[in-house]
Specification:
Chain A is α/β, with parallel strands linked by helices. Chain A has helices spanning 2-13, 62-68, 99-105, 120-130, 137-150, 154-157, 170-182, 200-213, 226-232, 250-255, 260-266; strands spanning 22-33, 36-47, 51-55, 79-87, 90-91, 106-109, 188-192, 218-222, 235-240, 243-249. The longest helix of chain A is centred in the middle third of the chain and has 14 residues, at 137-150. Chain B has a single domain, classed as Methane Monooxygenase Hydroxylase, Chain G, domain 1. The termini of chain B are far apart. The chains are: A alpha/beta, B mainly alpha.
Chain lengths: 271, 244
């Protein structure tokens, strides 16, 4: 019955242009904070040029899981990650991985916009400078221009590139942070509740931006807004108490989830 | 029917939606039963009551529409809640249409009152009994979220279709035998078609129950047994050919 249902569902939604190439693969990933096992045995494929949304109640492990992809958990004392994560076939959890290089491949945008206390230009130019991505001033300017254009910020800031990044509005600051993330040409962008500090208009612009830039990047987003997960993602994974409970096409998760716990969470019931 | 949302007023609204569907369903059942009774007993008064009561069904459909729109806009329901609202909208449209058919049957009863009673009326009564059974089962399947009952209704619609085909043939024969039968038989043809359509709407509701419960829509091609569109009854030319 379930097999038949799943087959019928894929038949309906599958379109020929979808290649669904896998960009990153998490296998039996677990995270410990000291003795506490915060995340258990997570297996998930992150598909290229798609948005994967991680949802679940507070403390479910979704942000912890997100931070595994750029080894941000390394910075937390007593935090230990087990299992494996392959990024295009490279094991990124191995001890010999250059995390600075990894974080250039896997960028991150945080909940609160956190521009550097520098000019708009320098915020975006910072990454390319430290990673040596530009050999001349002209090349650097080109990177800054295209990053700001891609995030739709260019027209709003082109006349004041040397004003401080912090002088922008909240929504603009968040787009600046996204421009800063994409300036180093990452392959994957991790977003940890990128809109929770923004008003609905700024949120809509970020969501539109996410949809546009996924043509070029692979995006993993943690969000508390189920409507947002439903709007921006192609794949959704639901976490609960440290377990990955259910993963699947977003449309399916929000119309007919299979697991009782997913159902309870997304319909706002006591789970 | 739905409980335990963290926001209790959400439960209340969903339950109100279900209650309204239940009331609408009960009213539709009664209207259809009354219209058939008016037909078989040639009861013009009852027929007139059916016609005037139809507005109550329309009003309930309107209530369901506004409640659903409100729920969608203010609650943004997900998963089974979303399916419940969508299905309520579709089921209420089907029920409203069934109510219209009951009204149509009742309206034609007046036109039949002046003519001689015809045997095919009994076939119509049999067919309506089947269809009313389907409506009862499908409303139960909706309220109990019972897939087996819903699937049973889909299968039973074939019987109704088959009966409609034979009734169609029967009426044509009557008309050929005596031209005075043409007026009442034509009305009976429309009545039979209306009842056959009621069966189709019951089937629609059953399919929506399937979606409500399982989250997947049944395959588009459902069994069809109505062949009245290709029925030809040749006039009797020689005494060798008998009619039933």
């Amino acid at each position: 019955m379930t097999g038949q249902t799943a087959a019928a569902a894929t038949e309906v939604v599958a379109s020929p242009e979808e290649i669904r190439e896998v960009k990153a693969t998490a296998r039996e990933v677990g995270v410990f904070y000291g003795e506490t096992n915060a995340l258990r045995n997570v297996n998930l494929d992150i598909r290229k040029n798609e948005v994967t949304a991680l949802i679940g109640p507070s403390g479910c492990g979704k942000s912890t899981f997100l931070r595994c992809f750029n080894r941000m958990n390394d910075t937390i004392d007593g935090c230990r990650v087990v299992g494996g994560i392959m990024l295009d076939g490279d094991e990124i959890l191995a001890p010999n991985v250059d995390v600075v290089h990894l974080r250039a491949r896997v960028g991150m945008v945080f909940q609160k916009p956190n521009p550097f206390p520098k000019s708009i230009f320098d915020n975006v130019a910072y990454g390319p400078r430290i990673h040596g991505l530009a050999s001349s001033r002209a090349e650097l300017e080109e990177i800054v221009d295209s990053s700001l254009k891609r995030t739709g910020l260019w027209d709003e800031v082109k006349d004041r590139l040397h004003a401080p990044g912090t002088s922008l509005s909240g929504g603009q600051q968040q787009r600046l942070c996204i421009a800063r993330a994409i300036a180093v040409q990452p392959e994957v962008i991790l977003m940890d509740e990128p809109c929770s500090a923004l008003d609905p208009i700024a949120t809509a612009r970020i969501e539109e931006l996410i949809d546009e830039i996924r043509q070029h990047y692979t995006i993993v987003i943690v969000t508390h807004s189920m409507q947002q997960a439903a709007r921006v993602s192609q794949q959704t994974a639901f976490f609960h108490l440290g377990d990955l409970v259910e993963k699947g096409d977003t449309e399916h998760i929000f119309t007919a989830p299979r697991d009782e716990r997913t159902q309870s969470y997304i319909t706002g019931r006591i789970g | 029917m739905t409980t335990d949302h963290i926001v209790k007023s959400f439960d209340e609204e969903l339950n109100m939606l279900n209650d309204t569907i239940a009331r609408m369903g009960g009213l539709v059942e009664a209207q259809l039963a009354d219209s058939i009774q008016a037909l078989t007993r040639r009861d013009a008064e009852l027929a007139a009551r059916v016609v005037s009561q139809d507005k109550r069904i329309d009003d309930l459909e309107h209530d369901i529409d506004s409640l659903s729109v409100r729920l969608l806009a203010l609650r943004q329901p997900m998963a089974e809640d979303l399916r419940l609202v969508i299905v309520a909208l579709k089921v209420s449209a089907d029920l409203e249409r069934i109510g219209d058919y009951a009204k149509n049957v009742a309206k034609r009863t007046g036109a039949l009152a002046g003519s001689v009673p015809l045997d095919p009326v009994h076939t119509i009564r049999r067919m309506s009994a089947l269809v009313m059974g389907m409506i009862k089962t499908v409303l139960d399947s909706y309220m109990e979220q019972d897939l087996d009952k819903a699937r049973d209704v889909i299968v039973r619609d074939e019987e109704v279709d088959a009966l409609h085909t034979s009734l169609f043939r029967e009426l044509l024969t009557y008309m050929m035998e005596d031209a005075r039968n043409i007026t009442p038989c034509t009305h009976l043809l429309f009545i039979a078609k209306n009842i056959e359509r009621v069966g189709d709407h019951a089937t629609n509701i059953a399919e929506n129950v399937e979606f409500l419960v399982s989250g997947t829509l049944p395959p588009g091609d459902r069994p069809k047994g109505d062949e009245s569109s290709i029925v030809i009854v040749e006039p009797r030319t020689a005494d060798t050919e008998g009619s039933e």
